[in-house]
Amino acid sequence: MKEVTIRIRRSEPSVSSDVHYDEFKVPVGEGMVVLDAVHYIQQNMDQTLAVRWNCKAARCGSCSAEINGRPKLMCKTRIDSVGDKITINPIKAYPVVKDLVTDVSHNYEIAKKIPPFTPKEGLSAPFKMFQIDVTRSKEFRTCIECFLCQDVCHVIREHHSNYFGPKHMVKVAALDMHPIDAIDRSELLHGEGGVGYCDITKCCQNVCPEDIRITDNAIIPEKERIVDHAYDPIGILIKKVKNRRW
Ligand code: SF4
Ligand code: SF4
Ligand code: FES
């Protein structure tokens, strides 16, 4: 049976500062994905290997890793698409808990800051929406929260800024573009959300396993909305007139 060599980064920072790679020879059959090989190692070679997974169907977003340097889902990456020598690292943007498992809880803190869907007052149910609005927000709702886009974003990865990150821009866009939603989240993104740090490199969009056009359809429209709200002189004048007490 054909074999591949799998190198896996091993570490457990809460226990030791040791970081090293272990190498395993794994027999491969037709159609095997990288997660199958990791499971084989866990079951037959090293039961201490830590990996997070759930669905093995590219739906739960748990098995994100860097495979030969590229952010991917392990359950969606066929072994025959990455070669005979495969190096697996945990996603780099977040602290390692153990081996391939990272602590992504920072994303849950950001999610709490984003105001939820808030329908306009006085609307009677059932709400009616145009198909174009349904289609637009449906794209964003396919997000599986794998955080691969966060991992590849150089702003998060290298500068550790306060930028919320592309995954959260997708969430905000889904809410802001909903025709019945009443909340304006542009001030949050302009301020605490740090969307100005994004320089539209589109790296996030290129790694999204759901093919969400993160930069084109979420980030750029949000940036345009912010410019309209924060810098358009006519808009600012209208706001001032509206808020003026006569
Ligand atoms: S387009 Fe923006 S969010 Fe996406 S990777 Fe580049 S800097 Fe990050
Ligand atoms: S936008 Fe795409 S890459 Fe980012 S978390 Fe959602 S599914 Fe993953
Ligand atoms: S195990 Fe669920 S996305 Fe890979």
The number of helical runs is: 10
The total number of structural domains is 2
At the fourth level of CATH, the homologous superfamily of the largest domain is Alpha-helical ferredoxin
Which strand order do you get reading across the main beta sheet? 2-1-5-3-4
| Hetero ligands | iron/sulfur cluster, FE2/S2 (inorganic) cluster
Shape: elongated
Q: How large, in whole angstroms, is the Cα Rg?
A: 22 Å
Mean pLDDT: 92
Ranges with pLDDT <50 over ≥5 residues?
A: none
Stated plainly, the CATH topology of the largest domain is called Fumarate Reductase Iron-sulfur Protein, Chain B, domain 2
Oligomer: single chain
Supply the CATH architecture of the largest domain.
Orthogonal Bundle
Helix content: 25-40%
Strand percentage lies at: 5-15%
CATH class of the largest domain equals Mainly Alpha
H/E element string?
EEHEEEEEHHHHHHHHH
DSSP summary, beta strand count: 7
What's the main sheet like? 5 strands, mixed
